Amino acid sequence: RSRRGVPRRGILRKIIYWNDPVNGLARAARPYYFVRATRWSQPRAVSAIIVNVAKEGRENLWRIDATSGQATEFTKGDQAVEGYNTNENAGDFVLLISTPTNIGDLFLQSVSGGQPRRLTNINDKLFSTLNLTAPEEIWYTSFDGKKIQTWVQKPPDFQQGKKYPLILNIH
After folding, report:
1. pLDDT per residue over 2-57, tens digit each?
2. How many CA atoms lie within 13 A of 11 on its CB side?
3. Taking the CA of residue 124 as centre, how many other CA atoms within 13 Å lie in the half-sphere pointing to its CB?
4. Run of H or E residues at 34
5. What are the phi and psi torsion angles at 45 (to 5°)?
6. Closest CA to 72 of 91, 92, 49
7. Which long-range contacts (CB under 8 A, 24 or more apart) does 65-68 make?
8. Cα-flanking dihedrals φ and ψ of residue 46, to 5°?
9. With the C-alpha atoms ordered 158, 161, 163, 166, is the resulting torsion angle positive or negative?
10. How do residues 73-111 score in pLDDT, each as one tens digit?
């Protein structure tokens, strides 16, 4: 659903479960990962579904093998793949990627993997005038033993020991 509660056309939201290859645990025992906008990878002989997965402050594409159910990251990085589509003949993916310091550029990702190739630089003029800092990911252990993820985005020209205002965003 969109922020206004209206269903998004062509968007599938569900919770998925699969075996965690690292910890050997069922995904149900771990935090939920939200999946949207599933696509079959091309060519169909590859027999995989590409899904957009939000996990720990990032949103990347995962490849789920249709035969084994094995899930692997298809794109990686401190980014949000906000949208994507594929060419049915070539099998490449066009991705709309944003990061905390760059909003919404298009990239071309080969179905065979590798680094995506940037296609646009839409906001270069705007971002050349801004002094943005990348957020720092910090994990700490809560009083009850649970791991808590936090992000700290320090102001430009941050100086250790100097006091700064704080904005807390719980999501």
Report:
1. 444 443 433 333 333 343 444 443 333 333 444 555 555 545 555 677 888 888 88
2. 14
3. 6
4. strand 34-40
5. -60, -20
6. 49
7. none
8. -70, -30
9. positive
10. 889 999 999 988 876 665 788 999 999 888 889 999 887
